[in-house]
Write a structure and sequence with these properties.
It comes from Flectobacillus rivi. GO terms for molecular function: methyltransferase activity. The protein is α/β, with parallel strands linked by helices. It contains 8 helices and 7 strands; from the N terminus they run H-H-H-E-H-E-H-E-H-E-H-E-H-E-E. The chain has a 7-stranded mixed sheet, sandwiched between helices. Helix 3 packs parallel to helix 4. The chain is globular and about 50 Å long.
Amino acid sequence: MDFLPQNINDYSEQHTTPESDLLKKLNRDTHVKILQPRMLSGHLQGRYLAEVSYMMRPRRILEIGTYTGYSALCLAEGLADDGKIITIDVNEELETFTRSFFGESPYADKIDYRIGDAGEIIPTLDEVFDLVFIDADKMNYTKYYNLVFDKVRKGGYILSDNVLWSGKVANVEEGKKIDKDTKNLLDFNKMCHDDPRTENILLPLRDGIMISRKL
């Protein structure tokens, strides 16, 4: 995920509003106690997600892929007074850890944390979403995008994380074998770019975020 020189990344973080004490603790504890801590959004991306939320003041956010809750807490910051974020994750082993941080936050009553298969839960949601953040298993990105699309309001946004896939999508060599996740993200990125129902930008922040605005 490290596309920029370390000194540029460090400089960017030094000139970005610091993490709250709770987010700093969550960041630290995730790296110490949880497997695959690189899945955490982290400081720079977290502040970006928070700023998007503050700019939109959404009433409803859907997050697909909670992990330890860092991005959900950042997205919750900008919610409208009557706003809510529904965040879904299939990994029940992380539930106690994640709920403990949600419970410590000032947004506890705005976070609807659900454990289960997002592919089964999304069709049951009777909501219109202002913002969707997809950050789950890469093989099902297209499925999740299609499941949520009609539930996103006109002018709403779908943000899809990890679309640069550690740079692999930009380093495909003709004739060489491509792993399944990379091939799936290549297809997903093309689908988003070619979707006439949206305008999009692929933002090279951290591991890449595809931003799709519903027309």
